């Protein structure tokens, strides 16, 4: 029963997207941001040593005596946290906007 309701809602939503092509911008932006999130996570793992070395050099420019690995790791972590927050905000905004526009279309 629930599966059928979900399929019906999906079918109706697809019909709304087919009628109003302007709404396709939201799924495209959301998908792009999701791909960017995956790329950020993968690159953070692949280049973690390089990011750490870069952060240590960056911290050393401002405080040569305190250029330790913990401060550099905190800097990298904070940068990645900000990037994730911005990217997920875009995904959530686009999905919410799409649902809001679809509800407006459903109500006439």
Mean pLDDT: 79
Number of strands: 0
Structural class: mainly alpha
What's the SSE pattern?
A: HHHH
Task: Report strand %.
Answer: under 5%
| Portion of residues within helices | over 70%
Instruction: Provide the low-confidence segments as ranges.
Output: none
Number of helices: 4
Coarse morphology? elongated
Distance between the termini: 27 Å
Question: Rg, please?
Answer: 21 Å
Largest sheet data: none
Short description:
By secondary structure, the chain is an all-alpha fold.
Commentary on this structure:
It is built from four helices and no strands. With 108 residues, the chain is mainly alpha-helical.
What topology emerges from the helices and strands here?
Layout: H1 2-19, H2 25-46, H3 48-62, H4 69-106
Helix pairs in contact: 2-4, 3-4
Provide keyphrases for this structure.
86% helix, 108 residues, 0% strand, mainly alpha
